[in-house]
Amino acid sequence: MLVTCDPCDARRWTESTTSNRRVAIVPTMGSLHEGHLSLVRRACALADEVVVSIFVNPTQFAPHEDLARYPRPIEDDLAMLEREGVAMVYSPSNDAIYPPGYSTFVEPPAVAEPLEGKLRPGHFRGVCTIVLKLFQTIPATVAVFGQKDFQQALVVQAMVRDLDIPIHIDVAPTIREPDGLAMSSRNRYLSTEQRARSLCLSRALDACSQLAQENERSLASLESAMLDQLRPGQPDGADHVDYAVVVDRRTLHPVQQSISWQASDLVALIAARLGSTRLIDNRLLHSPPMTL
Ligand code: AMP
After folding, report:
1. pTM for this structure?
2. What is the pLDDT of residues 207-226, one digit of tens each?
3. pLDDT at 287 over 90
4. Shortest CA distance to 152 belongs to which of 177, 175, 174?
5. Residue of the nearest CA to atom 14 in ligand 1?
6. CB neighbours of 131 closer than 8 A, spacing ≥ 6?
7. For ligand 1, mutation pick of 26, 28, 29, 36 (most atoms within 8 Å of CB)
């Protein structure tokens, strides 16, 4: 496995990969878990060579966020990727990505505006910029992203479409702990007591999804079913709910209650805080099975 922090080496390696061999890239911020490895395995199935990038991208963190404390267990990460048969790990330094004088940023697409875009101003500008730079350095045919970061996947898909970037964006399912918590590098910040309360996110999505399958037509009821489980501010709930919404799965804008919609047009998304840890999760909703 080639490990490089140099963009020129990374590009040379990709370009030297013969044109009939497909290259897949899996962008990550490291601190890898089974969720990341599921993307790597999917990438292995979609391409001949898999490149994983590890870069904790400072431009997608706001000054008050967790950039400094974000875990960086690079040796463990490399050992896991070696075992998965990854061909190259690209792990650039901050200076290689943003050298002194760096000043060019991507203006994100419209789908970046609601939800995370509102709560984390500048986040998707940072995400789009680093992802475009990674795609330039590693001209892969496919990139694998996780549904766990649902809005991010939509943002990247819109960016590659709008900017004519010749890469397919594949979106892989969320991997969960056995009790339902979506795996995340940030879960390690949780105390035992917060870890127990964190299950309110997956419980809220279960409740919402169950109601949708029972053909509940009121969006307000779907959303309040989530809040009933999240119990913001209660001792057994989340400390704060940034949002718990049911929206159009393509635009992430609210759906008018008055127009006709299918549950399968909708996605439920949650961002909630436990102590200083912010967790996100989501679920695509499904209509009840058709009856004849
Ligand atoms: P991160 O390192 O958190 O930036 O995540 C890198 C990629 O892994 C992103 O595409 C995430 O959506 C994806 N990812 C993170 N957690 C999970 C998970 N639990 N299941 C599947 N994919 C995930």
Report:
1. 0.97
2. 999 999 999 989 999 999 99
3. no
4. 174
5. 146
6. 27, 143, 156, 159
7. 36
